[in-house]
Amino acid sequence: MKRIALFTALLGLALWAWNGTIATESASTDTQAQVGQPAPIFTLMDSNGNSHSLDDFLGQHVVLEWLNHDCPFVRKFYNAGEMQRLQEYYAEQGVVWLSIISSREGEQGYQTPDEINASIEEKNMRPAAVLIDEPGEVGRMYNARTTPHMFVINTEGVLVYDGAIDSNPSANPADIEGAENYVVAALSASMNGEEVATPTTRPYGCSVKY
Amino acid sequence: MIRFSTILLFFLFMMMASSLVAQPSPGSDHVDVRMISDVSVISPGDSGTFGFHMTIEEGWHTYWKNPGDSGIPARISWSGADGFETGEIQWPWPETFQEEHLITHGYKNETLLMVPFSASADLQPGSYELTANLEYLVCEKVCLPAFERYNITIEVGNETEYHAGNRALVSRFTEKLPETDHGLEPAFTVDEGTVLLRLTGDLTSLGDFDPDDITFYAYTDDMIEPSAPQQAQLDDDALWLKLQQSRYAPGTLTELNGVVVIRGSEGVTALDIQASR
Predict the structure, then answer these.
(1) What's the CATH architecture for A29-207?
(2) Helices A82-92 + A182-191 axis angle, to 10
């Protein structure tokens, strides 16, 4: 017991000394998305030249989906029709689904507005809009790491989910079935006025090509 | 009506067929994988090691068990392995990669993922075929998944016989597994997300190294933030590492498990760390 106390004291001392000499990193600022806090407001153009601002959607649930059609993890969900199914289902429930492309021009996943519209048609996508986030300011604001990376915002504009689309980090479409879809879980809870049980997970997929 | 049901049947058939047909495996173009066994004959009750020897194209990398900010570790599922028991993948220590704004952990050039296995004591002599389904992700700037299947035939006989070349390969990579008997005592504290890991004991066994050449890799993604800077300090009887708790930690850490990799002047030392608070 004595040894533990001594050790704790030593560690405390070391921590104190260390903090004195080495500045601690702090990445969070007011404009960084954080679960449980108001989601940072942004305004982006969609592929049809219409402007959308997050505060237009107060009173509705909003899903943000980081998108890159050339990423195998995104294809896993689009080729299986799963992403479109969710987009369509939640549109019927009054949820605003915004797909966001933060790929820099020349990088994987970047699309011109016409190419975006062609993908919407070809893949039968059903988001409220596909937004163009070049040069990635909104992606950085939300710390969007991967495609897909999913966010759920409640009717009061508070971020209630930040993370992976589901519980099985894999590129294999066969793994969609059997995985827990965290976006579905977050929306179901939030739409029922309940707490989101898993509000943060590690997203998986391709890195966002800022 | 007939046409409709024909179409329906056709689609049903296609769905079944597509689940049977192998997945496209674009990642396989960038990694050459060879499955090996360090034993050519195994005696019932004995154990051996399977290896997946990956030769990775220059500029590309695959992932360690905790891939870091993105990426996915390899997965293996077995079939036809009745009478054999296969263990978890044993992962050589990883390297750090910077991918855009993310930090990941994995392998370039070459690695060997090892899987210990044993033959049950009541196996009859003869040939047995085991199938391994390997899934992995390989990334350069873009990431490509790979889905591969390997069949390996194992002879069960009276006496275990080793394959010299494969055994040498396995022992070369066994040296890259984290050491568990290093004799150093780990302990850690957490203060407002700052994790301070202390290793005490005979540090002379670690040889010459610069504290800047030390990296801690947590075994799971919910302990330490991969992209946060790490700092190491050395004093008379302890090595200190300052780390940042993962944003995915389910609360203040009570356990810290991972590997401390020291890239010293005489080679690399990797220490298995199992600490609780």
Answers:
(1) 3-Layer(aba) Sandwich (3.40)
(2) 10
